[in-house]
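== Protein entry: sequence and backbone fold ==
=== Local backbone shapes as whole numbers ===
==== Amino acids and backbone structure tokens ====
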Amino acid sequence: MKILIVEDEPLMAQSHEMMVELLGHEVVGVADNAVKALQLVDKNIPDLVLMDIQIEGEMDGIDLAATIFRQYATPVIFITSLRDDATFQRASAVMPLAYILKPFDRFQLKLHIELALRQLQIKKQAPEMPPLETPPSKIENSFFVRSKGKLLKLLFSEIVYMEADGRYSTIFMESGHKHTVRQTLGELEAKVPNDTFFRTHRSFVINLDHLESIDTSDMVVWVRGDAVSLSKEKKTALGGMLARI
């Protein structure tokens, strides 16, 4: 099995790498941040990712796991020292194969990897269910959120940007309305098309169709009259994406 390790503590990363190799698996790379991890995945797609939740950079392990799963369908095992319920609830929304608390030993890792392997094998062997006959226009261009006890249908084209607020997120609409929902920004990002929406910062995802200008001196982008933060890490990626449009 090809395994990618994402861990920002060098000694811990080295320990994980040694454990994985002793268990007979191939380590395809070790990354300490999201940018490097995505580069490694793009170069050699792993079968599984051992993902620390607290990593360097603006994107944490949970958001990174959601991005990798959305783009490459690669499953993840979270490894973390965080024991709070809020972190676990965020992590569980990404549907990991396991959630391992540090410190752990090789035997514990072996059990979790073997269980993950069995789950993957069962999933591959299971017959695919026929798709529901739902008109594509009803689901392809929108998603539903729960707000004030109601399910609201939000069209992708009418979303200007989305902002993270801890376990909640706020969705800003073209109409001027905004909806605060109990979903992380990573969970919302997984629902929108990645050729139209772009994460400019750890706390913001914008709709490129509403992008008005980019201010590299103040490190912001302007969408529908609102200034949204742009990280240095994302500035180059945004430029490259716009060049392809």
The first helix runs from residue 10 to 22. The two ends are 37 Å apart (CA to CA). The longest strand covers residues 159-165. Residues 129-138 have pLDDT under 50 and may be disordered.
